[in-house]
Amino acid sequence: MQTLKINLHGESWTLKKFECSEEDLLECLKVAAKMKLPLVKALLDPFFYYYLKRASIPSVEHLPGIKISGLLDTPKNQIEILLDGKKIRKLQFKDFNQEQLLFPLYNIHKTEIREEYSPGIYVEQKAIGFIASFEIKLNDFNIDDLQFKLLEFNDNLLLQQPNYQNKNFLLRKKETLLIYQNSFEISQ
């Protein structure tokens, strides 16, 4: 058995839409009122989760709801492919732009999402560092069976979790520093 690992370094972007049960929402509103903050701002405050004491909503990192996330298309990023601990490829985001090539170098699946935000509370975050380390065990490795998922969401191009022969990788670790965080509400 071989171990295939893909490391993502650089800058990530995440958008989370807060969705929870009616019971959890009422409790969140109570805690936000005690803190004298609107819920949209309270979600960014770490003490909010301390006062909330709900296993279903432990932190802003694990906020329940829809999440769109990935490695941003910036010059600082780097993608490493390792097989049994040996680096076999070192890529940058620009290597996935294959429109000018006669033959594609990598198996890319690109999805475009153009949509207006639906009503709700959103949290947007940017982080830098060791964005993710994905790992999978396999019998033999062929680079042509490795598929990279690109997502274009409202003009942001993101590299998401790769897969190998339609099997998903496991997220092993990440070490990031949050550099930007914002919350906003879209009303009906």
Question: Could you name the key traits of this structure?
Answer:
3 helices, 10-stranded mixed beta sheet, 10 strands, 53% strand, mainly beta, single chain, 188 residues, elongated
Brief summary:
This protein is mainly beta and about 190 residues long.
What value does the average pLDDT take? 90
State Rg.
19 Å
Helix percent reads 10-25%
What does the overall shape look like? Answer: elongated
How many E-type strands? 10
Name the helix and strand elements from N-terminus to C-terminus, one letter apiece.
Answer: EHHHEEEEEEEEE
Which helices and strands appear, and what pairs or packs with what?
Blueprint: E1 2-18, H1 22-34, H2 39-42, H3 46-52, E2 65-72, E3 78-83, E4 86-91, E5 107-113, E6 120-138, E7 146-153, E8 156-164, E9 167-168, E10 170-186
Parallel strand pairs: 5-7
Antiparallel strand pairs: 1-2, 1-3, 1-6, 2-8, 3-4, 6-10, 7-8, 8-9
Structure description:
The structure is a single chain. Strand 7 (146-153) and strand 8 form a beta hairpin. Strands 1, 2, 3, 4, 5, 6, 7, 8, 9 and 10 form a ten-stranded mixed sheet that branches. The chain has helices spanning 22-34, 39-42, 46-52, and strands at residues 2-18, 65-72, 78-83, 86-91, 107-113, 120-138, 146-153, 156-164, 167-168, 170-186. Helix content is 13%, strand content 53%. The chain is mainly β and 188 residues long.
